[in-house]
Amino acid sequence: MINSRSSINELQEYVAATEKERNFADQSAIEKCLLLGEEVGELFKAVRRTSGLAVDPNSKATEVGSELADVLNYILAIANRYQIDLCAEFVAKERINSGRNWISNAAQ
């Protein structure tokens, strides 16, 4: 069972198992990407709402944390579609990023 201390690998395995239980395992990577896009839109709306920016008062109220969890769920599901160890990929990418020089546009 997962908990608030679960690793990315544990979450990825959990998502794979729950997709089977909930009959979502047959959804393609393309379908998951489209669903991810919808969730990212909901995340943006939640960020706008919490930042005090104008939003449609009739739109569904969402919480940033809840929407981030939805986004993570789809990211993990997409990684599973491609048999990608997302934790290992993250670590490898951060090794590359740590060697880069990051300059803000204001400094250029």
UniProtKB/TrEMBL annotation:
InterPro entries: MazG-like_dom. Residues 35-86 form the NTP pyrophosphohydrolase MazG-like domain. This is NTP pyrophosphatase, house-cleaning of non-canonical NTPs. It comes from Lysobacter spongiicola DSM 21749.
